Amino acid sequence: MSEPLPRQVIREHLFEETLSALLPDRRKADQFVEAAEYVLARNPESGSLLDPAMKVWFVPMSPVGVKQVSLYYTFDDETVWLLAIMRVPV
Q1: Where are the beta strands (DSSP E) in 1-90?
Q2: The domain at 8-87 falls in which architecture?
Q3: Is it the case that residue 1 has pLDDT exceeding 60?
């Protein structure tokens, strides 16, 4: 039996849209982000602070094909909100 996550993870609509654009296969998309959800629910400060004013953080993800991507999120003591996952500009 798995232990409950210390924080709830919520996928925002934009996150779902950007994830679907990167990985149209829903099952593969879910598998791609589940490790990040696990880590961020336990230690959201493991990412890097992108915008202190808006409290937006990011974490680099494995490449999707040749596309390097990052996951953008924010959090509080109870919840992590996944905001978007997008290709990193080159």
Answers
A1: 8-11, 48-51, 56-60, 69-75, 79-87
A2: 2-Layer Sandwich (3.30)
A3: no
